Amino acid sequence: MKLQLYNEIPEGKKLYHYTTIAGFAGMRSSKSLWFSHIKFQNDFQEFLYAVEIIKNVFSTVADERIKFPNHLHIVPDKLPVFTFSLSEEKDLLSQWRGYCPNGGFSVRIADGLLNHVIKTDPHLELGQCIYKKDKQEEMVYDTIIGPIIETLKQREYDRNKTYLKRPDYDFFLPSQILKVIPFIKHPAYEQESEWRIVMNLEDQNLKRFDENLDFRAGESSLIPFIKVPLGEYLQFQEIIVGPNPHQSAVIEACKMDRRLMGVQASDIPYRKL
Question: For residue 93, which of 243, 230, 263, 226 has the smallest C-alpha distance?
Fold first, then answer.
């Protein structure tokens, strides 16, 4: 099972983005999606979990020429990876607690708008996160290791070398590993049914990183992110206002903008999340 990536939302699939009140206001005013650096997200531990899954798969390969790059832990700084999270669940308590405990939104951005962005931006890829460990391992093997084995079969190789020739090792292996990591999620979070739009900036695309990097405030830190413009107006198909002691006031404020459609309250009753 290779990693399956999409250039549009699959037909019939509804995907929602959870965000804080400040995040919603910021995306709306900037008419853009905010892609956060994977190293500074709430769930960076899942990055480390994914690395361990990949290491374990590499350890099962008998061919000594195929080795896990031990320097991978510094790769996110050299090859910046940014993600925009989506969920099949539009009103899930664990999502409210994890992403906007002090009030927020679950928004369904217009499918046509998202599809246009994914199709026209060469750095973006949409994929469904994988939670079951056996499926994760199968995906890693078929997406990363299988192609390497095929490459070795198709070319003459110096048997005295331990690693792939440098051009293959430097460019193919790290980029393939960085491609799959964002879609490996810990099994404990399977109920979130997460999808991700991933922006993977290779070395040759770092100009975009330098010119578009911005920061937003986290609870106690700065979070690097990149804005992806959406055009004249950020269109929503649904807007769910999360549990909040001032939920009715938030809904009333949203409805002042007559272009905001489908504003509704979460079905989850408020109590301190």
Answer: 243
Residue type, 198: V
- From first to last of the 273 residues of the chain, give the pLDDT tens digit: 899 999 999 999 999 999 999 999 999 999 999 999 888 876 667 888 998 999 899 888 877 767 776 655 545 555 578 999 999 999 999 999 988 988 999 999 999 999 999 999 988 999 999 999 999 999 999 998 888 777 766 665 555 555 445 444 444 566 788 889 999 999 999 999 999 999 987 655 667 777 788 998 877 788 899 999 887 778 899 999 999 999 999 999 999 998 898 999 999 987 765
CB 97, CB 271: distance < 8 Å: no
Rounded CA gap, 76 and 37, in Å?
9
- How far apart (Å, rounded) are the C-alpha atoms in residues 176 and 145? 10
As a whole number of Å, the CA-based R_g of the chain is: 20
Given a contact cutoff of 8 angstroms between Cβ atoms, the answer to whether 45 and 74 are in contact is no
- From the list 169, 201, 188, the residue with the least C-alpha distance to 38 is 201
The three-class DSSP label of residue 256 is coil
DSSP, collapsed to helix, strand or coil, labels residue 173 as helix
C-alpha 173/C-alpha 167 separation (Å) is: 10
Going from N- to C-terminal start, the domains of the chain cover 5-265
48: phi then psi, degrees, rounded to nearest 5: -65, -35
Candidates 39, 31, 22, 122; CA nearest to 83 is 39
Q: Which helix (H) or strand (E) holds 257?
A: none
Amino acid (one-letter) located at 185: K
Best CA proximity match to 106, nearest among 124, 88, 118: 88
> pTM for the whole thing?
0.88
Give which of 242, 240, 230, 256 is closest to 107, Cα–Cα: 240
